[in-house]
Every structure is written in structure tokens, then in C-alpha cells.
Amino acid sequence: MEEMQNVELVEGDEGRMCVNTEWGAFGASGELDEFLLEYDRVVDETSLNPGQQLYEKIIGGKYMGEIVRLVLLKLVDENLLFNGEASEKLKTRGTFETRFVSQIESDSGDRKQIYNILTAFELLPSGTDCDIVRMVCESVSTRAAQMCSAGLAGVINRMRESRSQETLKITVGVDGSVYKLHPSFKDRFHATVRQLTPGCDITFIQSEEGSGRGAALISAVACKMACMMGQ
Fold it and tell me: Is there a contact between 197 and 153 (Cβ–Cβ < 8 Å)?
């Protein structure tokens, strides 16, 4: 919610305007170039919209599994994984779904879940291979959570500065399958946002209504209204 006085495209200075940032498109002018890895560039180049939605391709669940697959292939090429041999299934674009990332990171520690997933890819992983694959998944999902956090923190800090408040109390509604289903994404995301927003009291509300447009926003507004009615 932006102060009307800061919204250039709409007349009037009173009240606030709900702004759709469309931040998935951030990076089209080179803002993310220094953060893009070789795997990100491959994902972008082989996508249906090269050069567009770069931020989304770094943080989105639609692309997370593919990034992991590309990292694994790189490690195989360097003879650091699976004895330097990748199966045809692992070599196939789009086969390593993001749900596998969540399942691998949910492994209890006995590696059984990781082993079962990798054998389904026609691989024969060692215990060390399983550990490496888990580390890759954790690295990719942690980066996604932290990059997503940076975007939200930037918006929240701007809101606090626009309102000239020493402490901003705010509710953030969140939706998305990775946020809901990944075992650690939510906690990493929350922790990093709070780390990057000193002077802000943030409450996160998870939408339970699916991924329909506006579901997260409705959750946040409903929470705020409930708080106001309780005062």
C-alpha cells in the first residue's frame, strides 16, 4: 500500500493506493546481472520468454527444480557426482521437478527418500552422492528464499520511509506452493525479511484459499480489519 502522494499516475494526495509491483519482471534492464549464475542464464535462454521475468526465474517454484538439475549436471561433468555419469532422464530438461527439491530436503537423515528419488532417475547414488544432492537443493532453495526476501524487504522499507515512521507495523499476506510445501523456505524467508527490515514489526499471514489472484491480499486486509475491530 503506497501513499497516494507518491503515486505519479493517479491524481490526488489523500489516502493510499494498492500497487501491483509485478516484481517478477524485475531485472529486464540489467539490475540482476551480477547475481545471475550460468544455470540461471541457461534457464532463461531455454524458456518461452528469454530476457523477461528474470527475478521470477530466480525465485519461482516453476524454475527451482530445473536450476537444481543443471547444477547436478555440472557436478557430473566435473566428475564430482554419480561417478561422472548422468542418466538420460537427468539430462532431460524439465524432469527434475521442484517437488523433488522439497522431498529431498524433507529427508529424515537416513537418505532413503533421497535415494528413492535418485534411483527413479535411473541413477545408483552413493551416500556421498545423496548428501551432495541435498546440499545442492538446500543451496538453490535458500538462495530463492533470500532473493525473494530482498524484494519484499525493499518494498517494506520504502513504505516505512514514505510514512516517516520510526517503527512500521505491517501484515504481509503470502501465497504460493513453495512457501506452503517446502520444509524450510518459509522460515528462511521470514528470517531474512526481518533481518533486512530493522524498525519493522512484521506479521506474516498464509493464504489458505489456493493460488487465486488476490487471495494473499484478502488475507492481509482481513487480518488488519480484525485487528482494528478488536481495538
Answer: yes
